[in-house]
């Protein structure tokens, strides 16, 4: 019977309920009627109906079973503590992505100033990686200017799920991503986040330590613009993370973008490249249909940032992508539907999808990593 229940997967934790200690008891009478006692992490579990149905279906498929009933109860504090240990979320408040044996590729998306489309780039890149079949997490670290929930179309009232008595939250799953953002945790959408730096840093630390992310291939972090407290805190918490710098072509953006890359170097993070957003406007003549490029904000700014960071940091920092201006890209963001998820062949979405494919093919190097190997 336990073999049948092994096929029942907890919808939130994505593990068999037998592995999670959720099967408390199984009773079978002489007529073949089965009673399964299931332990929930919280009495108000929103998915209890689904778990009940999955257990009933799994047991009912076993030969000789004449009927099945499911009895729900709640884990004790000791059982919840054991579950935390099973999930690798013990009381030490460890950042799992900072461990030497961590296999998740952590990429922070930075910019020198606001208004360059950094959040749109981050959301679309995350969705593009997910469309390639990767498990992707996304942290909206832009606490004051959080726009990730709107870009993903998160409905009002939706947000992370808190597991009662476990000091653990489950990131919201939407658009194939696991997402954490202050914007989803405010009681009122119009509420202003007016926190000082240390409080912001603590909140983001909890995103890393209290959230159960599971096994991720990629974790993308949408940093706030500039080189302030958050960039410093995230660099300290995630010393093995990589950084992509986003800029637009004009000099007012490129000069400060270079500082964001320099900040990453100071934190011993590797800058893996530069994205030039709003690179040009791709327009079609209304008479002949011929397409032409209009450089609204100048030309070559992203390449210049990449070249200067290469010289300053002492290793190759390439220009990863030039993302053109698309009216459809803007409209998709306003509608809460990332452009890369649309069927329309948008030049901007194609640029991000191509970058995602290259990132997925490029393995993270081991230079500077502790491998926990001891000489014989």
Strand content: 15-25%
CATH topology of the largest domain: Rossmann fold
Tell me, what's the shape? elongated
Task: Identify the CATH architecture of the largest domain.
Answer: 3-Layer(aba) Sandwich
Please trace the helix and strand order, writing H or E for each element.
HEEHEHEHEHEEEEHEHEHEEHEHH
- Report helical residue fraction: 25-40%
Number of helices: 11
Low-pLDDT ranges: 367-372
| Topology, number of strands | 14
The profile of the biggest β sheet is: 9 strands, mixed
Helix/strand-derived category reads alpha/beta
User: What is the gyration radius calculated from CA atoms?
Assistant: 24 Å
Count of separate structural domains: 2
**The top level CATH class name of the largest domain:** Alpha Beta
Textual characterization of the structure:
With about 375 residues, this protein is α/β, with parallel strands linked by helices. The chain folds into two domains: about 80 residues, 2-Layer Sandwich (GMP Synthetase, Chain A, domain 3), CATH 3.30.300; about 270 residues, P-loop containing nucleotide triphosphate hydrolases (Rossmann fold, 3-Layer(aba) Sandwich). The strands form three sheets. Strands 4, 5, 8, 9, 10, 11, 12, 13 and 14 form a nine-stranded mixed β-sheet that branches. Strands 1-2-3 form a three-stranded mixed β-sheet, covered by helices on one side. Strands 6-7 form a two-stranded antiparallel ribbon. The protein is elongated and about 80 Å long. The two termini are about 45 Å apart. About 0% of the residues have low confidence.
């Amino acid at each position: 019977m336990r073999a049948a229940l092994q096929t029942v997967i907890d919808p939130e934790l994505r593990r068999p309920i037998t592995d999670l200690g959720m099967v408390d008891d199984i009773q079978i009478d002489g007529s073949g009627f089965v009673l399964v006692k299931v332990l929930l992490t919280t009495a108000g579990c929103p998915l209890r109906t689904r778990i009940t149905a999955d257990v009933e279906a799994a047991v009912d498929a076993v030969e000789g079973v004449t009927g099945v009933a499911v009895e729900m109860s709640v884990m004790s504090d000791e059982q919840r503590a054991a579950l935390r240990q099973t999930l690798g979320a013990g009381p030490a408040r460890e950042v799992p992505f900072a461990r030497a044996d961590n296999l998740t590729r952590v990429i922070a998306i930075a910019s020198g100033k606001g208004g360059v489309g950094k959040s749109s780039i981050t959301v679309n890149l995350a969705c593009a990686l997910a469309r390639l079949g990767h498990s992707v997490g996304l942290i909206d670290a832009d606490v004051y200017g959080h726009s990730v929930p709107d870009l993903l179309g998160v409905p009002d009232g939706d947000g992370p799920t808190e597991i009662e008595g476990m000091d653990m939250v489950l990131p919201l799953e939407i658009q194939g991503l696991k997402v954490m953002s202050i914007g989803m945790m405010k009681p009122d959408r119009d509420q202003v986040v007016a926190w000082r730096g240390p409080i912001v840093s603590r909140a983001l630390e909890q995103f890393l330590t209290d959230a159960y992310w599971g096994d991720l291939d990629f974790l993308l972090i949408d940093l706030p613009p500039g080189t302030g407290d958050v960039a410093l805190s995230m660099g300290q918490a995630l010393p093995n993370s990589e950084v992509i710098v986003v800029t637009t072509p004009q000099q007012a953006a490129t000069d400060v973008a270079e500082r964001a890359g320099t900040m990453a170097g100071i934190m011993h993070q590797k800058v893996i490249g530069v994205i030039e957003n709003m690179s040009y406007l791709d327009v079609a003549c209304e008479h002949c249909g011929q397409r032409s490029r209009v450089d609204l904000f100048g030309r070559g700014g992203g390449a210049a940032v990449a070249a200067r960071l290469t010289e300053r940091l002492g290793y190759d920092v390439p220009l990863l992508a030039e993302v053109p201006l698309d009216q459809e890209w803007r409209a998709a963001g306003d509608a809460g539907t990332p452009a890369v998820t649309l069927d329309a062949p948008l030049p901007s979405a194609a640029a991000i999808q191509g970058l995602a494919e290259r990132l997925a093919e490029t393995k993270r190097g081991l230079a500077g990593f502790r491998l926990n190997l001891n000489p014989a």
